[in-house]
Amino acid sequence: MWPHMVEVVSPAVAVVLLAGSVPGWVTLQLSGHVSVHALVGTVVLRAPDPRAIASNRRRMLWGFDHSKPRACGDPGEIEMVPIYQHFADMEDPRVSRTRVHPLPDILVLTILAVICGADSFVAIERFGKAKEAWLRSFLELPGGIPSHDTIGRVFSLLDADRFTELFMSWVASCVETTVGQVIAVDGKTVRGSVNGAAGLAGIHLVSAWATANHVVLGQVKTAAKSNEITAIPDLLDLLEVSGCIITIDAMGCQKAIAAKIREHEADYLLQLKENHPTLFGLVDGYFADGIATAFAGLDVDFYEQVDRGHNRDEHRRTWVTADLDWLPESGDWVGMKSLVCVESTRTPVDKPTSVNLRYYLSSIENPTAEKVAKAVRAHWGIENEMHWVLDVGFREDHSRVRIGNAAENLAVVRRIALNLLKQEETAKVGIKNKRLMAGWDHDYLLKVLAV
């Protein structure tokens, strides 16, 4: 008669529990102190090897088992290059004798923790401690969970430019920008990184946001004693934007930036303000006279929108003209094809009505007022879907990380998490609650990583 405990010698051996055995359930003891229960009379085709389970989890998370040598083009790889592979080439800045915790483990732990709601290095360590048994199924962790001091020190030493470059490489591998898509470019200061006592300003990051894909395409940090004007061309040089429409606020309305955008075979839509006083005065006068006379005798396209919500009515009117013969300054802007005026009339429930006029320079060929109006509207996605979410959903402005490159590198991790969470659409909740769900439910976390 069969004993209640059956030792399985090889994970690949098929075990048949004979019908003449003791009726009911028996336990199969597997390698690695793992057991399964089966009914007498059933067949166990393959006993699971815990090492195989760990390897499979590594593949589920990152597309390959980083603990084993792997030939390029291994047929076992998944088709989409995983996020981990893009950061595998990150150089470890520590001397060899101090590498108790492998750099891949630290990076993976940090990305997972930030997805799951951690907003500081202390929280990342606590996440690791709470999830250590699960993390060991796909991470090596030879020294256990690294301390928050170790994690912070590593992130302060990592080459921020290289880390950002690898982040952008990952985004480019899984996001395809389409012709005509609006890419909004804007800057944001991480306010918590300001260190007045040390005389250090907070880091200011200029980011590119794909408004249709809802992802951060890339970011660069403005140099010390500089501003967005010098950072935007550097960001554009790192992106594939051919055929897209680049929208930038008044800070980026510069001739050199317009030329750089056209150099990359993209179109621009640049907000014009009083920082170009002569040009602004001419454009303001043209549209003011046109609105007063209903653009009589002028070649202007028109589009109108009315929105109601958030306790207010908003009436937007957009005019576009490709007639630039009267504007001598138009030749100074590479590729400029048209001028745009957007009038926004807001009527809140409990406040007076306000009217705002905004002007734009555009290189879009044969633009319609409707197309331009939608592009102008799409630009605000970088404020509403990125900057606001980073502040509210990730508490970025509350982060007190300041040492070395840590603030910039942790900002990259937040944008990795934001991109992944934005692409997961089955949970109809905000980013903050998605982060909580990922921390509570491993299956949901795997779903987020799989996007």
* Continuous helix count: 15
Count of β-strands: 14
Strand content: 15-25%
In quaternary terms, these chains amount to: single chain
Q: Average the pLDDT over all residues and give the rounded result.
A: 82
User: In angstroms, what separates the terminal alpha carbons?
Assistant: 50 Å
Q: What integer value in Å does the Rg equal?
A: 28 Å
Q: What is the H/E order?
A: EEEEEHHHHHHHEEEHEHEHEEEEHHHHH
Work out the helicity level: 25-40%
Low-pLDDT residue intervals, each spanning 5 or more residues? 1-48, 56-81
* Biggest β-sheet: strands ordered side by side in the sheet: 8-7-6-9-10-14-13-12-11
Biggest sheet architecture = 9 strands, mixed
- What would the principal axes of the Cα set say about the shape? elongated
The total domain count is 3
Given helix and strand content, the structural type is: alpha+beta
Which descriptors apply to this entry?
single chain, 451 residues, alpha+beta, 3 domains, 3-stranded mixed beta sheet, 14 strands, elongated
Report what the structure shows:
- With 451 residues, the protein is an alpha+beta fold.
- It folds into 3 domains: 5-48, no CATH class; 53-158 and 403-450, no CATH class; 180-188 and 200-390, no CATH class.
- It is built from 15 helices and 14 strands.
- A 9-stranded mixed sheet has the order 8-7-6-9-10-14-13-12-11, sandwiched between helices. A 3-stranded mixed sheet has the order 1-3-4, with no helix packed on it.
- Strand 9, helix 9 (255-263) and strand 10 (267-272) form a beta-alpha-beta unit.
- Helix 6 crosses helix 13, helix 8 packs parallel to helix 9 (255-263) and helix 14 crosses helix 15 (442-450).
- The relative contact order is 0.10.
